Amino acid sequence: MLDPASRSSGVHFLSAHAVIRQLIRSSGVGPGDLVIDFGAGPGTITAPLAATGSRILAIERDAAFVRKLNRRFADRPLVKVVHADLRTVPLPSKDFFVVASIPFAVSTVLLRRLLSRRSLVGADLVVEWGFARRVVAARTAETAKWARKYELRVARRIPASCFRPAPRVDAAHLVIRKRR
Q1: Phi and psi for 148 in degrees, rounded to 5?
Q2: Domain coordinates of the chain in residue numbers?
Q3: Burial class of 76 by CB neighbour count within 10 A (0 to 12, 13 to 18, 19+)
């Protein structure tokens, strides 16, 4: 059961286990990698990420979810729960990955933060479908700059029915990889 605040704030939790497994498999993360799960919520992505042996930063701004995450992962030393806003939390200076289903409303802000970092190795993000298509197709100065440093592509469309509660629009699996 979702708490009432989640329903009223436009938060939609990815609940399709097959999609979550595909995100993690696509990311290629494994033992020793530093991985951020932005907007960790109840930990539906955090838990399977932890099973990879990666070091996980579960970033969550909602205090109730932070308490639940701390309880859930108390015996998992590789999972660190951070009570912070993804728009302002300091990003690592060491190489890191992101695997997350991010709030649609902050997609642009987060992408700008991530793609300005030299330490971002790759990201597998769940974002709003239209946003993902615009990012990979746009020909602005900003997206051209991103494309010089990173490969950006849409891996697949994710139906709204894969979320609880379902958003009004579909989502996309956006893949970002640092160019060599």
Answers
A1: -70, -35
A2: 4-178
A3: middle
Q: Give the pLDDT score at 8.
A: 39
Residue 127 pairs with which residues in a beta bridge?
172
Residue 141 in tokens: 């100065």
Tell me the C-alpha distance between 177 and 164, whole Å.
28
Whether CATH 3.40.50.150 fits 4-178: yes
Residues in the chain: 180
Ranges in the chain, pLDDT < 50? 1-8
pLDDT, tens digit (0-9, with 9 covering 90-100), for 24-57: 999 999 999 999 999 999 999 999 999 999 999 9
- Residues belonging to the binding site are 12, 14, 39, 60, 85, 101
CB 28: neighbour CB atoms within 10 A? 13
Q: Which of 28, 5, 4, 24 is closest to 14 using CA atoms? A: 24
Binding residues for S-adenosyl-L-methionine: 12, 14, 39, 60, 85, 101
Predicted model pTM: 0.93
